[in-house]
């Protein structure tokens, strides 16, 4: 037994060293991993040494660890599904292990206590009403508070960290609630409503770059990022199947399309794919100004795909 214990302990120690090395790589990465990690630290209440986890919100802690492992698969071997010789316990703590089935069940149970989640989705909700309902709902407000803390305009904005918080925020709620948030608008020129809309939609921190990039650059940057590329591929296939089927990645073919020849499916799968884009480069406000004439039509097409409300109006 002693030999067996020493064997597993040595494996665990080696894995821990690898996971600590991955954490250092993540913190120093320029691919957004550091932003997700900062939210892991915040939600799981990790100490400065990184080897204590005192999460009060264990469901939220497990959920953000799941987001980390899904978005950066190199961490999958560092994620604990049991308490036996588990390397992640020295990295995050025993109570921050992950069990996707349990997390899904616990999250559903948590939201089942929420009055907000029992409302059927209705179109044309104002962002002020939706924001008030979320604030007044204990489950929603808890998640909204974390998101606003990260994306607060009162501190220096970190776009990638704010985007990671938005991804976590929208992935962690029922589809009906996510729809209410993403598709809310302000019909009247109401300053309070527009302020609520900006809060719910990550403005200005997650979507406003200075100077604004061209829509062609946004697509190129997205395709260079594995997480964004997957979401963009799903979004095109679910919402703009006609474009995907007819042209795929053929720029010359795409340029020949006109907006009237671009029906959007706008079904539930399309809406889910659209919501999944929130917190990625695809939601960054882009422009087609100052581009050479030869690139204008393709740029305008991408702007239409990414930012046109016609798909869901």
From TrEMBL:
Chief localisation class: membrane
Key words of the record: Cell membrane, Glycoprotein, Membrane, Receptor, Signal
Coiled coil: none
Any one Gene Ontology BP term: cell surface receptor protein tyrosine kinase signaling pathway
Subcellular location per the Swiss-Prot or TrEMBL entry: Cell membrane
Keyword Lyase among record annotations: no
Cellular-component GO terms for this entry: external side of plasma membrane; receptor complex
InterPro entries named among the record's database cross-references: GDNF/GAS1, GDNF_alpha, GDNF_rcpt
PANTHER family linked to this entry: GDNF FAMILY RECEPTOR ALPHA-LIKE, GDNF RECEPTOR ALPHA
Identification of the protein by name: GFRAL protein
Native organism: Ciccaba nigrolineata
């Amino acid at each position: 037994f002693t030999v067996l214990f020493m064997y597993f302990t040595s494996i665990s120690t080696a894995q821990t060293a690898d996971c600590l090395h991955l954490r250092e790589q993540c913190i120093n990465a320029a691919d957004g991993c550091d932003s997700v990690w900062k939210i892991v630290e915040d939600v799981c209440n990790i100490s400065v040494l990184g080897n204590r986890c005192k999460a009060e919100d264990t469901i939220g802690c497990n959920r953000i660890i799941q987001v980390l492992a899904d978005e950066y698969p190199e961490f999958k071997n560092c994620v604990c599904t049991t308490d036996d010789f588990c390397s992640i316990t020295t990295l995050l703590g025993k109570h921050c292990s992950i069990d996707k089935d349990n997390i899904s069940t616990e999250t559903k149970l948590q939201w089942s206590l929420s009055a907000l989640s029992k409302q059927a989705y209705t179109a044309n909700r104002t962002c002020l009403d939706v924001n008030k309902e979320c604030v007044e709902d204990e489950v929603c407000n808890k998640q909204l508070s974390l998101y606003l803390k990260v994306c607060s305009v009162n501190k220096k904005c970190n776009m990638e960290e704010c985007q990671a918080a938005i991804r976590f925020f929208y992935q962690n709620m029922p589809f009906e609630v996510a729809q209410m948030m993403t598709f809310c608008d302000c019909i009247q020129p109401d300053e309070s409503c527009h302020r609520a809309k900006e809060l719910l939609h990550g403005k200005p921190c997650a979507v406003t770059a200075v100077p604004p990039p061209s829509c062609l650059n946004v697509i190129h940057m997205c395709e260079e990022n594995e997480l964004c590329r997957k979401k963009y591929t799903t979004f095109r296939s679910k919402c703009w199947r006609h474009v995907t089927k007819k042209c795929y990645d053929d720029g010359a073919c795409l340029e020949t399309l006109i907006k009237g020849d671009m029906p959007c499916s706008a079904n539930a799968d399309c809406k889910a794919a659209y919501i999944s884009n929130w917190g990625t480069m695809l939601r960054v406000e882009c422009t087609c100004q100052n581009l050479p004439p030869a690139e204008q039509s393709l740029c305008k097409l991408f702007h239409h795909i990414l930012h046109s409300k016609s798909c869901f109006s």
